[in-house]
Structure formats: C-alpha cells, structure tokens
Amino acid sequence: MSEQTSILLYIKNMLADLIYINGIIATELIKVTENTATIRRGEEFLEKTSCLKEHQELNHKIIEILKKYQRKPEDLVGLEKHVLKHLE
C-alpha cells in the first residue's frame, strides 16, 4: 500500500471514530436535556410537549448517520441498543 493510501485510510478511520464519538455526545445531550426539563418542570410538562417525539426522531437520525460512516455494522450495536433503550 502506498504512503498516500495509508494516510487516506488513517484519516478515513479517524473521521469515522470522530463521527461515532459525536453521535454519542449528541444522543446523551438529548437525554440530559430531557432529564433537566423533567427536574425543572416535572414529567407531565415534558409529556405534554412535542419534545419527546422530536428527540426520538433526532436520535433515530443520529443512528442512521452513524450507520453510514462506521467501518463495521457491529461498531454500532451497543450504542444503538443504549439509545433506543432510552426511547422506550
């Protein structure tokens, strides 16, 4: 493998890792936002808003983006289960 190809592969893998880490941060921040709203205003408030449905849609979009850029499907199994468990 040429040096240029090796560097490009390294950068591609690094970007996939950064996208994965950003996906974790994004999904956890959504959950922190929900928890903060619940603490401040109560669970009934959160259930009356469209936030939970919108957050669920955002989490699914984040997972779909992550699926596009990960090297192996099994890279996402743990995160997908964790995020979708939050949505139950």
Structure notes:
- The protein is an all-alpha fold and 88 residues long.
- It has one domain.
- It has four helices and no strands.
- The chain has helices at residues 3-41, 43-48, 51-69, 77-86.
- The longest helix has 39 residues, at 3-41.
- The chain is elongated.
Keywords summarizing the entry:
mainly alpha, 88 residues, elongated, single chain
Secondary structure blueprint with pairings:
Layout: H1 3-41, H2 43-48, H3 51-69, H4 77-86
Measured distance between first and last alpha carbons: 47 Å
- Number of strand segments: 0
* Cα Rg: 17 Å
SS-based class: mainly alpha
Kindly state the percentage of residues in helix: over 70%
Count of structural domains: 1
Quick structural overview:
The chain has 88 residues and is an all-alpha fold. It is 84% helix and 0% strand.
